[in-house]
Amino acid sequence: MKKFFIKFILGIIALFIVIQVFFLRIYFVPTRSMEPTYKIDSVIVATLFDYGILNPYSPFSQTPLISSKADSGHILDSTARPERGDVIVFRNPLSPKTHLMKRVFAVGGDEVQFTCDGLYLKRPQDEEFIFDPYKEQFAGIHYDEDSATIFNALEYEYQKGLKETLDGTDASEIASSKSNLDTPDCQNVFIWKLEKDTFFMVGDNRNHSFDSRFFGAVPYKFLVGKVRWQLF
Question: What is the pTM of this model?
Answer without folding.
Answer: 0.80
